[in-house]
Amino acid sequence: MPTQTVKLLPTSHGLSPEARAEVIPMLQASLADALDLYTQLKQAHWNIKGPGFIALHKLFDEAAGEAEEWVDELAERIVELGGLARGTARAAAAESRLPAYPAGITAERDHLRAVVGALSAFAASARAAIDEAADACDAGTADLFTQISRGVDKHLWFVEAHLHG
Questions:
Q1: CATH (one of 1.20.1260.10, 3.30.750.24, 1.10.1240.10, 3.30.559.10) for 17-161
Q2: What pTM did the predictor assign?
Q3: How confident is the prediction along the chain (165 residues), in pLDDT tens digits per residue?
Q4: CB within 8 A of 60, min separation 6: which ones?
């Protein structure tokens, strides 16, 4: 990711200002995506209908809970590096790279497909961020994205399993 102009707040963090200026925009983009993912999972959780309701209701809520943790970890990493996290719903709506969640759906398969789309898009960006953070010599951020990637992959597997058979 090309280095953008980033205002860095004072910090004694050992990572170079150049590396921090490189990874903060990537972290911010992922923060917007994670906030959007969280709300999409809650949308599915609240509105699912069908014979598999209780299992999917719980599955979507568990995934949303983990996405909420990723939101916090991403925002805190931005601030640790001397950035300013933009974590409002408006910022997430303006900046998210995830596909929009379909309005008005209630059927299980429709929610499953929409959630798979959101999870797979978020997983792809997390995997790309691992390499970008490593290229910036920021092992801490690369490790954060590795952790997130494993969690997203697990939830993607659980949700996709409901589309088979």
A1: 1.20.1260.10
A2: 0.93
A3: 444 478 877 777 788 889 999 999 999 999 999 999 999 999 999 999 999 999 999 999 999 999 999 999 999 999 999 999 999 999 999 999 999 999 999 999 999 999 999 999 999 999 999 999 999 999 999 999 999 999 999 999 999 999 996
A4: 41, 42, 44, 45, 48, 111, 115
